[in-house]
Design goal:
There is one protein chain. This protein has about 180 residues and is an alpha+beta fold. About 20% of the residues lie in helices and about 40% in strands. Strands 3-2-6-9-10-5-4 form a 7-stranded antiparallel sheet. Strands 1-11-12 form a 3-stranded antiparallel sheet, with no helix packed on it.
Length: about 180
């Protein structure tokens, strides 16, 4: 078995011009994504923000990633705490997403819904479609963001099978086929 590197196609070796930022953002708006509220609590304080940049990495060990802008006001809190909860939002929870996605003070954000503390102390949304309680085990800086690699310690799946996605710069409720009529 050869371990020699595979040569890249000649066309890819030529210098390319990256897409304009606006073109990239417009194309990314067509990539639908689940809407999540990421929460933490600990020595750095309690905080939360809305995120669609959440993705499964592997199921052994169960690990997901969360992207967090280093210029976000919540960044130092998440960096200090090292634990978080991914609260997957369901249909009809757009107002909560907007609260956590804006400049609303933290106390007002958390007052808008029912939360309970997990074993690690992170706020868990009572009415979430699903929750993933995690420890941050690695982080990588890429451009303006940190990619947080998070090992999942506990999961909970909500009673209702529904979701909330963000696509084409708008929220869309995902409901079971029977409820959609």
């Amino acid at each position: 078995m050869s371990t020699a590197p595979i040569p890249a196609p000649t066309a890819l070796l030529a210098a390319t011009v990256p897409p304009e930022r606006a073109d990239y953002r417009n194309a990314m708006a067509r990539l639908g994504a689940a809407v999540n509220i990421i929460t933490t609590d600990g020595p750095g304080g309690r905080a939360g923000f809305t995120a669609s940049a959440v993705c499964s990495v592997t199921d052994d060990p169960p690990t997901l990633l969360v992207c967090l802008n280093r210029s976000a006001s919540v960044y130092p809190v998440f960096q200090a705490n090292g634990v978080l909860c991914v609260n997957v939002l369901g249909a009809g929870q757009q107002p909560l997403s907007n609260l956590f996605g804006g400049k609303t003070p933290m106390d007002e954000r958390f007052a808008a819904a029912q939360w309970h503390a997990s074993a690690s102390g992170v706020p868990v949304l009572a009415e979430a479609a699903a929750t993933f309680e995690c420890r941050v085990v690695n982080r990588t800086a890429v451009g303006t963001h940190d990619v947080l690699f998070c090992e999942v310690d506990a999961v909970r799946v909500g009673d209702a099978a529904h979701g909330l996605v963000y696509f084409d710069r708008r929220y869309h409720d995902l409901l079971p086929p029977a409820a959609a009529h």
